[in-house]
Each structure stands twice: as structure tokens, then as C-alpha cells.
Amino acid sequence: MDADILITNTLLLPDPGNSTLIQSGCVAIDGGTIIYAGPMEQYGDRRAKRVLDGRGMLTMPGLVNLHGHAPMTLFRGLADDLELADWLSNHIFPAEADHVNPEMVYWCSTLAAAEMILSGTTTTADGYFLETEVAHAYADAGLRAVAAQGIIDFPAPGVPDPKDNVEAAASFLDAWQGKNPLIKPALFAHSPYTCANTTLQRAKDLAREYNVQLYIHVAETEQEIAMIKEPLGPTPIQHLQALGILDTQTICVHCTWADDNDMDILAGQGSPVILCPQSNLKLASGMADLPLMLAKGVRVGLGTDGCASNNSLDMFREMDVCAKVQKLHKLDPVAVPAKKILAMATTDGAFLSGFPGHTGVLAAGQPADIILLDLQQPHLTPFHTSDLLVYAAGGSDVRTVIINGRLVLEQGRLLTINIKETLNRVRAMAIAVQ
Ligand SMILES: [Zn+2]
Question: CB 3.0 to 4.6 Å from 277: which of 98, 135, 228, 322, for a disulfide?
Fold first, then answer.
């Protein structure tokens, strides 16, 4: 069989979790699927419609950013160096009330898609309001995405009366379920302190009815349990457990303050945790005990959070910070090895995203989500091990990106996004924000 795309003569990292490198590798793609990934000499002399020369490049699975709020690119750098409650109540919520509309959501999400593709992210999970515009932006960009409609007990963009928040989410699921293989609709309940107990239960009932994921910010700050109106347990995670909403499809974002019991509950229910270490550092929320979570069998992925609290969507930065801050937090240089952090951002994250197939490894039969990094640079020389991807590489090292077999970035050039128009539109909107 002739391949559609053949990547040749590349340093190949097919499974970031085990860090084995193949010196002269190749990857063959047919349609959206990998048909071969391995040593070049074993592929034989088969032809391809398109050959990408991988000399001097590293080829690996794309990165998976499992938590973001794409439209918040508009608020990047708008209100830095504040406490979470002040930042949310006095800056972010008012800015959202004034400036979030369908056009803003579409273009700011397109900007987020550009930033993520340029820095090697091929799958993301997003949660926001007017999420249908995020989904359109990501579909147009060719980015693989879980798009989760926001639910909150305040008037929100597109849902002026919070009584309608779950119904609006149901309409979103109706509109997107089964529509596009790269867009998986889901729900995003903002937090246990902005959603009443009945709202959380109705949201989970809806998620179960449609068999979709429910994302929620939880245990982000030490003060959170005191902010919950009717707490049903001593911690936010035990509150969610008492509400009966934790299961494998409830994705708990942050869990910075998850205690020993909380982690046992999360492991027992199979509820994944998404860590956003840079957001937690910048807002000084605290730091999750990642080694303990992993030891207890909690499934953990990595995300950037919205870029207003980061302020970057570059997953290479996130991996580096996550690895180093855990070492400092535990005063232990072997707290979490780079190999595990890389797996969290690729294979583990891909599994948690819930897309069919396994986008986190390069293997025959799996979806073709692939990135190529330029190794011909001082900071990536020599390239002894894949640990360098965590400790030295950056998003700007990514040259080529393939998602579901489609080239979306080639030699640094975005093929699915008009970046000039996107930058101009977001800059024009930013003037009104200041
Ligand atoms: Zn968030």
C-alpha cells in the first residue's frame, strides 16, 4: 500500500513513556492512520504520495493539553500578580461580562489553536462559554479537541439567566455530538463554589445521559471548602463524592489541595486529575503532591489552564515547570522523572482525553497525531535522551505538525489558520479591553 505521507530518516520516539529512540526511523501515514512506525530499513522500498525529510528532526506523538479556556487569550497579561479571588471577581469576570461574544470567542480560540499547534499540541480539552464558537475555531484549525460547554450559577456569556445553564449545555451537546471526529463535546462545571449542589447533579445527570466527560475545577485553593454554600464533606473532593458525581468521566482539574483521603477517593472512582502547575504557581494556589497521587494510582494529565493565568499555552514549558517544581516541593530530585512527565503530556493525556484509538503513541493502526522538532540547535545538542524534551526543548522547536493525518503546520508555516488575520482581529479587540 502506498502511504499518503512518509516521514523518512528521522530520530523517532514512538512511545514517550518508555523513551526508546530509533536512530533512523520512518513513519508512514494512510488517511488519518499510521500504517508503519519503526526503523527505516524494515519499511522497505514502498512509495508515498508525499515524503517529509526527517533528517535532523525528532518525530514523536503530539502533546496533549488537557485544560484550557481558549477565548481567554484576549486577557493574556491583562491582570497579573493578583490573588485568585481578586483576579476572578474584580478583573476576569467583569472583563468577560463586557467583552465575550461569539466573534471574540471564535477569533481568540483561533489564536489559541495557532499557539498550540505552533508549540506541538495536537489534542486539547477546553472549557468555556459560547463553546460552540470554540468548537468551530478548533474544527477549522484541524485541532483535535474536547470542547466543554461551561455551566455556572451566574449570568454567563450566551446564558444570561443561570436557570438555563444546563439546558444550554444540552443544546450544545445536541449540536456537536457525532458531528466532527476531531471535536468531542463535553461539559465544564466551573467549580463547586460557583455551582450549587443541584446544578452539579443536573450537570452530571446530563453528562451521563449523553455519555460525555464532565470537567470541573476542584480543590484549587486552600480556602475553597469555605466558599462552598452547602458543603457535604470536609474537602471539596469529598463534597463531590457525596454528591455522587465522581467517576471515570468526571475530570478533576487542579486538585492542588487533594489530601490523602481525597486521593484514595479519586483513585477508587477512577476520576482523572489534570494538573496545571504554572497556573497554580502564578496564582500561588499551592502545589499538588504528584508523587503521592501517582503512587495511589490516580490517573494524571497535564494542562496549561487559560493563558490569562499562565500566560502561555506552550506544553513544553508546562512539562519543564511541572518536573522541577515537584522536585522542589518534595525536596527530592527523583520525585517524578522527566519520562513520566513526558508520558503525562502525551500517552497518558491522550488516553484521558477519551478519543478513540491511541493518539499518544506512534504505532500502526493508531491515529496520526505527530510532531517534528528541529534538533539542529545548540540547546538540543547533543540529544542523549528524551529527557531533553522536558528540560531543554521549547514550543518554538516544533517545525511540522500532523493531526489525524492532515498537515496543519509545515516547516513552521500554519496551513489551516490565517495567522495574519487572526492576530489583527485579536489586537483590534484588545484595544477595547484596556
Ligand atoms: Zn481553568
Answer: 322
Measured in Å, residue 69 CA sits from the centre of ligand 1 at: 6
Report the alpha-carbon distance of residue 258 to residue 294 in Å, rounded.
13
* Cα-based torsion angle of the residue sequence 143, 148, 150, 151 in order, rounded to the nearest 10 degrees: 180
CA of 22 to the centre of ligand 1 (A): 37
Give the integer Cα–Cα distance in Å for 391 and 341: 11
Contact 138, 124 (CB under 8 A): yes
Ligand 1 centroid – CA 348 distance (Å): 20
Task: Tell me, in angstroms, the distance from the centre of ligand 1 to residue 276's CA.
Answer: 8
Give the Å distance between the CA of 330 and the centre of ligand 1.
25
Identify the pLDDT of residue 45: 75
Question: From 3.40.190.10, 3.20.20.140, 3.30.390.10, 3.55.10.10, which CATH number describes the 63-353 domain?
Answer: 3.20.20.140
Q: For residue 68, report the distance from its CA to the centre of ligand 1, in Å.
A: 6
245-277: b (≥16 Cβ within 10 Å) or e? bbeebbbbbbbbbbbeebbebbbebebbbbbbb
Exposed, middle or buried: residue 226 (CB in 10 Å: 0-12, 13-18, 19+)? exposed
Whether 200 and 162 have beta carbons less than 8 Å apart is answered as: no
Residues 194 and 30: their CA atoms lie apart, in Å, by 46
Distance CA 111, CA 265 (A): 37
Question: How far away, in angstroms, is 317 Cα from ligand 1 center?
Answer: 17
Question: Averaged in consecutive runs of 10 residues, what is the pLDDT profile of the chain (434 residues)?
Answer: 92 94 97 97 88 97 98 92 86 88 98 98 98 98 98 95 98 98 98 98 98 98 95 98 98 98 98 97 93 98 93 97 94 94 98 95 98 98 97 98 98 98 97 86
How many angstroms separate the CA atoms of 144 and 373, rounded?
A: 20
Rounded distance from Cα 88 to ligand 1 centre (Å): 11
If you measure from the C-alpha of residue 176 to the centroid of ligand 1, how many angstroms do you get, rounded to a whole number? 22
Give the pLDDT score at 387: 97
Q: Kindly give the distance from the C-alpha atom of residue 223 to the centroid of ligand 1, in angstroms, as a whole number.
A: 17
* The pLDDT value given to residue 232: 97
In this prediction, residue 124 carries a pLDDT of 98
- Tell how far the Cα of 217 is from the centroid of ligand 1, in angstroms: 6
Instruction: Give the residue extent of every domain in the chain.
Output: 3-61+358-414, 63-353
Quick one: 3-61+358-414 is in which CATH superfamily? Urease, subunit C, domain 1 (2.30.40.10)
Bond before 382 cis per omega within 30 degrees? yes
